[in-house]
Every structure is written in C-alpha cells, then in structure tokens.
Design a protein that fits this description.
The protein is α/β, with parallel strands linked by helices. 39% of the residues lie in helices and 14% in strands.
C-alpha cells in the first residue's frame, strides 16, 4: 500500500486552519480517504506525485481541468511569455479579444463571448441573461444535475432558504413528456432550460440522451420561447472540438465552458447568439481577476492544440480503449462492470452494487498500485494518456478484480 504519512500529517494541520481540512468535491470524504492522497506535490503528463513521493497514473485529470496533460510544454511556454508582461491589469489585454475571436470562429452558433473564472460564475449569469431577454422568472433543470455552487442549483442544503429554489422547476432526464407538461403548464413564465450534454449525476451511472431527445428539446424551447442554455463546463473539449452540442447534434442559444478550457488555468467562457447580445450587456458581469491574461493565454493555446491535434477525437478513442479493456477484464472475473457515458468521461457502474461497496473496493485495490480511479465521480481521459498508461491501468484492474473474487470466495 502507498505510504501517505506526510499527506495525513498535512491534513491534520489543515483541519486546524481550514474548515473540514479539505472541502468540496476534493474532500477526502468524497473519495477514498484512507487510500487516496490528501495533497499532491507535482504533476507531469498523465500522472502526478503526492507529497509522500508516491507516483500515480491519473484518470481524473484534475477533475477534468487537464485536457492536454499536466505541465504541457507549449501551453507553459506561452504562459511564461505572457507572465513576463503581466497577468491582471486595470484593463483587459489584447489576448481577451483574440480568445473571444477564436471561440466565435470555432463554435458554430456563437456570435459573442464573455469570460469569468469558474463554471458557476457563468451558468448563473447565463440564466440571468435568459431572464433579462424573456422577462420571465422560471428556469428548468434536470433532477440531480450539477450546475455549480450557487444556491439555485448547489447539491447541498447549508445556508439555503426556500426562496432560493422557488423559481427552479425540475424533470427527470430523458422524460420528454414531463418536460413538455412543465412548459405547457407554465407557458409565458419560463426563461431558460439549462442542461448538460448528457446526464452525469454523482453516485449514479451516466445517462446518454435517448434518440430524438435533443431534437424534441429544441422544438419545445422554440415553441414556448425558452432559451436553451448548454452547461458544457464538464464536457467541453472531450466530445467535439466545436462544442458538445455538435457531438449530439443540436444547437443551444447560450453555452458555458470551463474546466478543460484553460488546461488547469482558471477560466470560464459563455458564448451566445446575436439575439441575446443586448440582454448580455444588461446583466452585470465582472471580477477583479477575471481579465487574467495568463489564463486567457493558456486557453488560447489549449484551443489551438485541440484543433491542430484533433484532441476530442483522440481522447474518445483512448477512452474506448480503456473502457473496453476494463469491461473485458471484469467479465473474466464475473463482474458486470458497465462503463457508462461517453468513453472520454466514463462513469464506472457494477450491476447490483447499489451501496457502492464493490466499486469502492475496486478503486481501493487499484489505488494501492498507483492507479487513480474515482469510485463516485465520472473519470476523465486526457491527451497525455497513452497506450502504455492505459494498458497498465487495465492490467492493474484485472488484479483488483482477481483480489475481489478471492475475498468473496474466502469470506
């Protein structure tokens, strides 16, 4: 088993000065607290080294933020040149215009772009733009969907009041009949429908859209005058270079990107159609560090790399190699593992494992051999993953399933 002594010691220090020690989605409680490191030291390519010197092959990619690999040389070279000039100024730098032009040219429906730091910044802003444009108060989302940490959508309960969700309506993913009923019963009062490209709720298998789902969603939004907002924060860059809507064949009115956009540098973007330019100018959007030229430079180079190297197609292929290999070795040991969702962002699900004990045990055994698979969150493939890292992960997974079978036989 990996030695995590310094990691544990740091966590104890953190608990004194940080509420919970580590919070949010990277809290130890969200993963495997006794088998995952609490703190990382450095990273390169598709792996990282924790503070105890343990080396890991990483299939979380900074929870999706790393698309081209940690510490990518071209991105870091561009960033270093910009850093010599500066990062945050009183006014934006020219790279803001270049980045906006790049997004507008590469995303087929986009006529303008704005920038912030996190996905939450702009999912919330986008629904306000929809309200400004339509004059309507209500917003529809899918049950269990994650759109950020603001009170209208966050997955927790602390500090929330009933009014925070009073204008939010929900339907079950893929239930077009329920969606249609909500729209007809609230005709004239709905500003936006906000959806992810596919349903990736935590602690549950990912659900792809049923055939015809997106076509009908578009029709319903057009019929009732509702803006279709695509939350592409998690998926952007890993399904299609021009946005995940292209992968599934539909067109939103607004779309929000973050995570992989900056390859680890904090940036988010919202793009939209010309029809909503005026409304976007009426909804206040700002932050002291939101015109960060370094992060924008990283995003510009990241987009260049994605287009030049066909990264979305490559990570889908690498994900297919991994997911098919894992399902194959699982079947050998009579484990009904299903890698749900797109292969570039697979979520592992073992049939019958409703309490998640089996997937936790599987990820624990893999962690003991330096493979970072998360038991409760979808994984991420990056372009730095290669056949060697994928083959090693599949091999380690086979040993993990073998150990699980041995434990079951002897228990």
């Amino acid at each position: 088993m990996n030695n995590l002594t310094q990691s544990d010691e740091l966590f104890e220090r953190a608990r004194v000065v940080v509420p919970g020690g580590i919070y949010g989605h990277v809290s130890p409680a969200a993963g495997l607290p006794r088998h995952f490191p609490h703190f990382c030291d450095r990273a390169q390519g598709c792996g990282f080294v924790d503070v105890d010197g343990n080396e890991w092959i990483d299939f979380m990619c900074g929870f999706g933020a790393i698309l081209h690999g940690y510490n990518h040389p071209e991105i870091e070279e561009s960033v270093a040149l910009q850093r010599e000039k500066g990062s945050v100024f009183n006014q934006p730098s020219p790279v803001m215009v270049e980045l906006a032009e790049r997004l507008v040219s590469s995303i087929d429906f986009a006529d303008w772009a704005v920038f912030a730091k996190n996905g939450s910044d702009l999912t919330t802003w986008a629904i306000r733009v929809a309200r400004e444009s339509t004059g309507s108060p209500l917003v529809i989302k899918a049950k269990g969907a994650y759109h950020g940490v603001d009170s209208w959508c966050d997955p927790g309960h602390g500090g929330r009041i009933p009014e925070d969700r009073a204008s939010i309506l929900e339907f079950e993913w893929n239930d077009l009949e329920a969606l249609s009923v909500i729209m007809s019963q609230n005709e004239g009062d709905i500003a936006a429908l906000i959806l992810t490209p596919y349903h990736h709720a935590a602690f549950a298998p990912s659900e792809l859209p049923d055939p015809g789902f997106w076509a009908e969603v578009e029709k319903l939004c057009q019929r009732y005058g509702i803006l279709l907002v695509l939350d592409d924060v998690r998926c952007g860059g890993r399904l299609h270079g021009g946005g995940s809507h292209r992968y599934f064949g539909f067109t939103p009115d607004l779309a929000v990107y973050s995570k992989a956009l900056g390859n680890g540098y904090a940036i988010s973007a919202c793009v939209g159609k010309e029809s909503y330019r005026k409304a976007s100018m009426e909804v206040f959007l700002t932050g002291s560090c939101w015109n960060d030229a370094v992060a924008m430079t990283a995003a510009l180079k990241s987009l260049e790399l994605s287009e030049r190297e066909g990264v979305a197609e490559k990570v889908l292929a690498k994900g297919k190699e991994l997911t098919e290999g894992l399902e194959r070795v699982a079947e050998k040991f009579e484990k009904n593992l299903k890698m749900t969702g797109p292969p570039s962002m697979p979520y592992p699900w073992i049939e019958g494992d409703e309490n998640l004990f089996e997937i936790q045990k599987f990820c624990q055994f893999c962690a003991e051999e330096g493979i970072y698979f998360h038991p409760h969150h979808n994984w991420f493939l990056g372009n730095a993953h290669d056949s060697e890292s994928i083959e090693k992960a599949i091999h380690v997974a086979g040993r993990a399933f073998e150990r699980m079978s041995e434990e079951e036989r002897t228990s």
